[in-house]
Write a structure and sequence with these properties.
Blueprint lengths: L4 E2 L20 H14 L4 E3 L9 E5 L14 E23 L2 E19 L5 E7 H14 L10 H15 L9 E2 L8
Parallel strand pairs: 1-7
Antiparallel strand pairs: 2-3, 3-4, 4-5, 5-6
The chain binds zinc ion.
Zinc ion binds next to helix 2.
Length: 189
């Protein structure tokens, strides 16, 4: 099942998401559906709040950028109840976009290296270190679980310049090929 994507301005994107239990009903199907939604919308990462579920799951499928980023060529993972325990390396700029903020890309500063622990879809525990582009996607998706969007991380001037554009996006003024949920619209269970 392909979920509609919740768009900037919707309250669910600002909530701190909750951890889930191993016996969370329909977990396998949900993760499968998240991957299907991600492929359909041509993204490389998706967090559960972006489909209206305030739970601590995000997924990454780096296949679309695999030609340019060999580390991501076969990188397809689900991160459940993840915790970033260490951020290190240089703070570097990188261009980011977000399915919840259509057609907007900005340079965002983040640490180049993260250590993260999480459970995968088979409820196996992992404690891993990532760098570069992979770390970047993890940091972006992880922020969604805490109600943080990449536009929050821009400098005050840039934020001010983008205010009008973000307001327009929140009202549905964008052209994309996936279904969306705007602020105030109900999320179907
Ligand atoms: Zn995002």
């Amino acid at each position: 099942m392909i979920y509609p994507i919740v768009i900037y301005g919707h309250a669910v994107l600002r909530k701190v998401a909750s951890e889930i239990d191993e016996d969370y009903e329909g977990l396998g199907q949900l993760i499968e559906d998240m991957f299907e939604t991600l492929h359909y919308s041509d993204g490389i990462g998706l967090a559960a709040p972006q489909i209206g579920k305030s739970i601590r799951i995000f997924i990454i499928d780096g296949t679309p950028v695999g030609d340019d980023e060999p580390d991501l060529a076969n990188f397809k993972k689900a991160f459940i109840n993840a915790h970033i325990t260490e951020r290190s390396g240089d703070i570097v700029p990188m261009n980011e976009g977000c399915l919840s903020i259509p057609n907007l890309r900005e340079e965002v500063m983040r640490e180049s290296r993260v250590r993260i622990n999480y459970y995968d879809e088979n409820w196996e525990y992992h404690d891993e270190v990532y760098e570069g582009y992979t770390a970047r996607i993890i940091e972006h998706e992880y922020d969604h679980l805490d109600g943080i969007l990449f536009t929050d991380k821009l400098n005050p001037l840039r934020k001010r310049l983008l205010k009008g554009k973000l307001t327009a996006i929140s009202k549905g003024k964008f052209d994309i090929n996936y279904k969306t949920i705007l602020a105030g619209q109900k999320i179907k269970e």
